Amino acid sequence: MRDAIEFQDVHFAYPNRPDSLRGIDIAVRAGSKVALVGPNGAGKTTLLLMCNGMLRPTKGVVRVGGVPVKYDARSLREVRRKVGLVFQNSDAQLFAPTVRQDVAFGPLNLGMEKDEIKEAVERALHQVGMNGYERRPPHHLSGGEKKRVAIAGVLAMDPEVLVFDEPTSALDPATAEEVMDLLDELNHEGRTVLLSTHDVELAYRWADEVVLMENGAVLRHGSPEAIFSDTALLHQARLKPPAVLDLYRELSDRGLFKDETPPRSALEFTDLVEGLAGDQRSHDSCGAIHIWDAAGVDSTALETLLSSGAVTRVGAMGTRAKQRASEEGIVPDFTYGVIDKCLLRAVAGEDSLILTSGGMLAHTRERIDTYAMESGREIGIRTVETGFLGRRSTGPEAPARTKDQDGRSKNEIAPDCEQSGREDNINGMAG
Length: 431
Ligand SMILES: Nc1ncnc2c1ncn2[C@@H]1O[C@H](COP(=O)(O)OP(=O)(O)OP(=O)(O)O)[C@@H](O)[C@H]1O
Fold this sequence. Notes:
Distance between the termini: 30 Å
CATH topology of the largest domain: Rossmann fold
Bound molecules: adenosine-5'-triphosphate
Shape: globular
Radius of gyration: 24 Å
Order of helices and strands: EEEHEEHEHHHEHEHEEHHHHEHEHHEHEE
Number of helices: 15
């Protein structure tokens, strides 16, 4: 896979200061999710500011898409179109009198035509779920809303790479989770995401790769498991291990685990612990996961399912799904880590529902299938009927809901689990 950004022997010193970066050599693969972690003053922000040419190395080379960054105004415009940088403090990024003007700033600077700008602004605000806020002054928005508008500002230029300095700092836990869900969605669209964070829990469960920095240098670049399992390394960087790994290590030290792969999530951890219980494992009592395409127009089947009481928890994955949940008057229980949380409910014998759309539909099914196969559990996947999907070219009008002999719509019924991960596509309409 090609590299989105490469740093080769990059050094940097602020005026009259010692080196803040001391020979950085890393490559960020295109399409990956990379977390920069390290203590205060390690050089994370300084490194991120190099990604789109906001800072110029005093020595060494930064490459974007294989091409060395040049620092004349024209080359910088081109680099900033490819690499969008979202600052830690949204107030430092938002300055126009209205949200619309703020998001339009980048495309305007790129010299885009008026119509193109309008379209880019609408698309970007829609992507972050902030359509309807166009006329609002950014400084009147909440922290989470400001962050979304700042993200829209870079998305309006349709960058291949998104760089975030501490994307969740100063956000409440639920808003932070929603922002991370948005980042995942953008990554699913094929964009590379590089972020800095102090949050080891976030870095451990989210990242494909972790770059651990200290004192202007890279201490280690590797998998989250390798980095966060190395206690001495974490101590050197003044970081704590993620809670799930800490528990795993304590149990390993008591001889309960030997060569198992360290867990990265509550789901993996509970599976490992349950494995210790041997025969007491509850193979046969798993629940099903219902999936509803949030881009569908007909919500009758959804209402039927929800009012049947069969579903104990609802998760909304992605901006479209969250908007749709709000339109349908549904308050989701899960807005981040949705699939794992629903798998946990399924293993506990409960049915849950995931609202999602687009490429996330296939991803959801694949993830459930993989888990079912690897764990040997039988978890049913049910597609809730959505009616005609506007974005499809093949569908005519909404098909009538099928009824069983008792006259109930089929998705009201929670039959026993299907085979591992096998999809029970109720009305023959895969999303
Ligand atoms: N504008 C600046 N002028 C002078 N020195 C700076 C400036 N910004 C950062 N530094 C110095 O550069 C070094 C790296 O700082 P940087 O902000 O990149 O670290 P960081 O890892 O992002 O820290 P934090 O986690 O606290 O945000 C520090 O020693 C800091 O004092």
